């Protein structure tokens, strides 16, 4: 595992073997950040990394200049590893040990990007709950994007605010954004006049 781009490009990550994680592969991370580069200037972003695990996605955002990165995981070993690695890499990453749903229900900050990589055995109801809380509580900026990583056997395109998905091997990224249908309708009406 390594950092793919930015000021820390090429730095290797060596998390303890005992951490209960399934890290996002380097190939998937590269594909994800290629998509995000087309939608955002990654400098100055505020990012929330849920089920952060080893923190590899958080480090990618930090390497590319994100100014606020909050990482949340339920495992203390993961949180300690993120804190230690962020310090080594001189990155401003806040790591929190918390159940993700409990964190989202209490949290107030709005983010440009929220990334979540829950366990692959998550139920459809659990995925639905995360999406619902993020949009109901306005934790995502109006122009922001929420990305959920999941197994190819999980289908999320029926959920509110679903935008598009991209598959990479057995992994899928589902992207959620605030619905812009009204804006698109207004633009098309303006073009007709």
From TrEMBL:
Entry-linked Pfam families: Cons_hypoth95 (PF03602)
Record organism: Myroides guanonis
Positions of the UniProt region annotated as Disordered: 1-20
GO MF term (any one): nucleic acid binding
Family annotation (Gene3D superfamilies): Vaccinia Virus protein VP39
Protein name: 16S rRNA (Guanine(966)-N(2))-methyltransferase RsmD
Keyword S-adenosyl-L-methionine attached: no
Listed GO biological process terms: rRNA methylation
UniProt keyword annotations, A-Z: Methyltransferase, Transferase
PROSITE patterns in the record: N6_MTASE (PS00092)
Source species, domain of life: Bacteria
């Amino acid at each position: 595992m390594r950092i793919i781009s930015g000021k820390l490009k090429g730095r290797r990550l060596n998390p303890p073997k005992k951490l209960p994680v399934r890290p996002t592969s380097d190939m998937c991370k590269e594909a994800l950040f290629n998509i995000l580069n087309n939608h955002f200037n990654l400098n100055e972003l505020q990012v929330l990394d849920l089920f952060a695990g080893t923190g590899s996605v958080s480090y990618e955002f930090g390497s590319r200049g994100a100014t606020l990165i909050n990482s949340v995981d339920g495992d203390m070993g993961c949180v300690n590893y993120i804190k230690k690695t962020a310090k080594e890499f001189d990155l401003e990453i806040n790591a929190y040990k918390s159940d993700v749903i409990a964190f989202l229900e209490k949290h107030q900050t709005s983010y440009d990007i929220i990334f979540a990589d829950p366990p692959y055995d998550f139920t459809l109801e659990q995925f639905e709950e995360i999406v619902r809380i993020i949009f109901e509580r306005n934790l995502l900026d109006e122009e922001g994007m929420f990305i959920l990583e999941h197994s190819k056997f999980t289908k999320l395109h029926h959920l509110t605010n679903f935008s598009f998905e991209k598959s990479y091997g057995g992994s899928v990224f589902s992207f959620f954004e605030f619905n812009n249908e009204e804006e698109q309708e207004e633009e098309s009406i303006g073009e007709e006049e």
